[in-house]
Here is the input.
Amino acid sequence: MNIDYSKELPLIHGRLSLGEIEDLIAKPMSEKPNRKYYIALAVTLTLFLIGAISLGYTFYYGIGMWGNNQPVGWAFEIVNFVFWIGIGHAGTLISAILFLLRQKWRTAIARFAETMTIFAVMVAGIFPTIHTGRPWLDGYLLPYPSQNGLWVNFTSPLLWDVFAVSTYFTVSLVFWYIGLIPDFAVMRDRTTTKVKKFIYSLFSLGWRHSNRNWQHYEKSYVILAGFATPLVLSVHTIVSFDFAVSIMPGWHTTIFPPYFVGGAIFSGFAMVVTVLLFVRKVFDLENIITVDHLERMNKVILATGMMVGYAYATEFFIAWYSGVPFEQFVFINRIFGPYAWAYWIMVSCNVIFPQFFWFRKLRRSIPVMFIIVILVNVGMWFERFVIVVTSLHRDYLPSSWGYFKPTIFDIGLLVGSFGMFFTLVLLFVKAMPVVSIAEVKAVADGAQPTHHGGEH
Amino acid sequence: MDRTNKLYGIVALFDTPDQIIHAAEEVSGKGYKKFDVHTPYPVHGMDDAMKLKPSKLGFVTLAFGLGGIAAGLLLQYWTMVVDYPMNIGGKPFFSLPAFIPITFEVTVLMATLGTVIGMLSVFFRFPDNKHPLHETPYMTSVSRDKYGLFIGANDGKFNEAEVKELFSSLGGKGIAEIYEPERTLYDAFNPKFVGLLVLVALLVSGGTYFSLNKLMYMNPFNWMDHQFRGVPQQASDFFADGRMMREPVKGTVSRGHMPYEFADSAAQPAEPLANPLVASAEVLKLGQKKFLTFCSPCHGNHGDGDGRLNGQFPVPPSLHTEKLQKWQDGNIYHVIAVGQNIMPSYASQLNVKERWAVVTYIRALQKAGNASKEEVQQYRKENAANVK
Here is the structure.
C-alpha cells in the first residue's frame, strides 16, 4: 500500500455521484434498526441505568455516597468532568480549527465529531452540577439580582468554569445546528412519511438551498469557526485554572493550560476514532469515512501524544528546578508512591503505545488503531486521575495524608457516563445524518466548476 | 400545499456546476434582479456569477461582539466594585486580569448568538416553511443533485415566454411554473388552539403550585430541615432520661477556666489566695463596672451597705468595717466566689479576672472611705502637683 503523500488524496473513495453520497448517508435514517442495533442499545442503556441509579442515590442522600473525603476532596467526579470536557474538544478542533486551516478531509468526520462534542459536554456538565451537593440550587452559580443582594465571585476560576462550559456548550450546539440546517432540508425533501417530514421541516426552518442564503451561510460558518477556535482553547485553559490557580503542589504550575488543551485534543481524537471505527463499518460508510481519514487522525494522536509526553517531562524538570521540596515530593510520590500504578498506566498508554503510529502499516491497520485508541482513552482518564488524586492525597501536612478509594457509586457514575454518551451516539446515528451531506457533496469529484479547479 | 393561479416564478434545472455558473452569469448579465440559484451545496464562484454584494453579516458579529465585551465588563465592574465590593486577598476591587475570562466568554456567546439569530431571522427571514418553492419537484431535485435557477414573477423584466426561452437556450431542463400557495388564516377562537392555551395554563400553574408548596417540603429539597441529629429541647428515645440535652461529663472544665480550689467550703480558707492583679487604672475601671452592676444593688455604690434594695431585702453589713479592712484580698474573693450567709455565689456572673478586679476596687473604696486628714491633704498636694 504505497501512497504518494505529495498529491492530494481523493476525499471520497469509489467515485460516488452526488445522489449516491446522499443515499448512503441517509440510509440509516430510513431503515428500521436491525438486531445488532438493539443489542448495542440494550448494552448502553444498561450502563446508563447503572449511572442513573448511582445518580439517584447521590441526589437523595448527598455526595457522602462517594469515596472522596479529606484530604482527597476532589476525585472521580472531577476526573470524569475533565475527561469528558476533553473528549469534546476534538469535535470543535475538527469542525472549527481544521475548517480555518482549509483541511477538506474534515468534511467526512466533522459532523460526527461535533455531535460527540455536544454529547461529551452534556455528560461532563453533570459532574460539577452534582458535585455542588444540592444540584437543584445550582441556579445560584449564575449572576442574577436576588433578594440575597449577593453576587457570584467573578474572580474565581470555578465561576469562570460555569461561564466557559455553558458558553462552550451553547456555541457548539449553535455551530452544529447551523451545519445541520441544509441536511435537515435534504431529509425533508427525501422522506415520505408525514411525521418525519413535519419534524425535518420544523428543524430545517424552510431552508431552500438558495445561493443568496449560502452566501451568508458560508460567511457565518467562517465567523463561528473563528470564534469556536479561541473558545475551545479557552475552555480547557479555564478548566486547568481550577487546579493551577490553587497553591497545591502538583497543581500550581503554569504549564497546565497548554498541557490540558493538548491532552484534550489527544483524548478527543482517540474517542472520535473509537466511535468512527464502528460507525463506518455498521453503516457502510467506508467510502466516505476512509482509511485516509483515520490515518490522518492517527497522525494527530501521535503528535498530541508526544506533546503530552513532553508536558510530563517538563513537569518533572520544573519540580526539580524549582527547588521546592513539596513540589519535588509530589512528583517522586507519583512515580513511586501508593498511586504509582495509576501513574504508570498513564505513561504507558499515553506516551509509549501511540509510538506505534510511526509505522504507516500500523497507522492504517484497523485492529491496531482500535487497540491503541482504547488504550489512549484509558490513559487519558488516568492522567486526570493522577493530576487530581495523587496531588491531593499527600500534601503539605503528613498527618493528614490519606488514600482515596472509590465507592460503588463513584464507579457507577463513571460507567453511567459512558452509557449516557454511547446511548446518545446510538440515538443520533439513527435520527440525523452522521456525515454532513451538503459538505461532502461539495468536495466530491466534479462538484465544483472546472474553471475553479474543482479540487484545490 | 394548495396553489392559487398567481404565478410566483419560473424555474429550470441544470446538470453540472459549469452549466449553472454560466446560466447565472447570463441571467444576471441580462439585468434580472429577482432571480436565485438553488444548489445542494455552495458552488464556488457563484456569488460573482450572480453579482452578489459581499455579505454584511460580519458587521452584525462586530456589533454583538463589542456589546458582549461591554456587557461582560460592566456586569463585573458593577457587581464587584459598586454593588457588593468584596476584599479578595487584598486585591483591587476592579481586578481586570481576573475579569478577562468571563469577558471573553460573554463576548463569544453574544457574538455567536447575535450572528446566527440575526442571519436566520433577519437575513433569511426564517422560519419559512410556507415558501412557494417548497413541496415542488424543483426543490426535491436541487435538494439532491441538481442545480436550479429561478426567476421571480415580480422582477421588472419578467416575461413568461422570454424567461422560458432563455432557460431552454441555456440548456435548462424541467422548466416549470411555480404558483403562489394558498395562504390559510387561522382563527384565534379555534377550539384546538383554545384547548392548548388552557392546557398550558393548567400545566404552568399546577407545576408552580406543586414545586413551591409541595416539592420544597419533600426530601431532599427541604433545605435539610430533617436531619439525623439531636436538637436541644427535643425528646429523645435514645437516652434514659428521655431528653436530648446532655449534662457535661463530670469534671469537665471549660476552656480558659481555672477551678477555684476552695469552692466546696463555705468557711474561709486558712491560707487565702493572693491577688494576681496590680491596681492599675484599667483593672480599677473593670472592677468599678462589675461592682456597680453586681454588688451595688445591695452593698451600695460606695460599699456602705445602703443599696437600692434597702428595705426589700436584708441589709448587708458595710464593706468599711474593721473586720473587712483587715481581711486579705483572698477572703473577699472567697465570699464572691462561694457566697456567705444570705449572699449567693457570684461565680457564674463574674469570671476569675473580674472577681479579682472587684476585690481591687473594694480595696480602693475602703481606702477612699477611711482616709485620715493627713492622707487627704497629702493626696491633694500630690494631685495639685500632678495637675501642673
Chain B is about 45% helix and 10% strand. The longest strand of chain B covers residues 3-14. Chain B has two domains: 3-181, 281-387.
